[in-house]
């Protein structure tokens, strides 16, 4: 009996060697789990996506967590309960029985959010959306600053050592830009992208989304989530996500699991892409990269920058009276919408009459021609423009 078992083991080794020679894949395969419950398209759709990934990529092995199904894939844990599936998923990750997992409807702790991966329709470029689910912080600006680091982390785990970073033109974009540029000036490496629009800069517009002007597009999570749905389902009318790699892995400073998110509307092609993305994140040691990136960012003053952001946002505003009114005929742009009134108040405090408005490129402070130069200096000194 023992001799029979030994022969079986030797045969398995020879089979593995033969497979490795045939596929070019030597060493252990990356094991990716996937929970199969919760899809609007049924368990069969998730299994179909899992089979697509398993058959296409010789470097990974897909394990199912969910009800028993008719498939060549192994069901590593059988259950008909989503909550139990999530508990087992985390148990398997912690035990090292799977390297990463794909699931939906999973709640990350505050401080962890996912980096989505899409294919942009303009030029067919891949782009990371930082972030698409979860919450990096309770303060909006702090969260978006962290989202940039999460995006850089994911890009580096995918093998891009110098990813370009753009900031989507949403509320808070200018404050995020200032914070990230301060972080870069302090020594943290950020390769800012340039918008395709003529006015330039790293604040991105809709055109940039379609063309994939940046490797990483930084935005707030709710906007990122919406964009993921648009990029994934714009060819199908919205009920079936057919394009891309899903909502991505949860990234956090001390988060030690690789859990990639799909939505209930994700179809088999996106599920297959999400499994590939999860395997890429595991192979690129995403959690280790996150620790390295946060150490570098902290060495460049990340915590102090965040403290300044949150203290300035929570400080009580001083009551300032308007100086005598003037005709305002010059626009000063580059000010975030969330700090527009504060910028006006800073000028009033120095005796310069100003009004606020919306110009062609976004929020503006308007001043008289003779006050423009001094107003620019005051706004720069107070951090409203760069």
TrEMBL record:
Pfam families (alphabetical): FA_synthesis
Gene Ontology MF term list: acyltransferase activity, transferring groups other than amino-acyl groups
GO biological process: fatty acid biosynthetic process
Active-site residue numbers: 360
Taxonomic superkingdom: Bacteria
Designated name of the protein: Fatty acid synthesis plsX protein
Organism field: Acetohalobium arabaticum (strain ATCC 49924 / DSM 5501 / Z-7288)
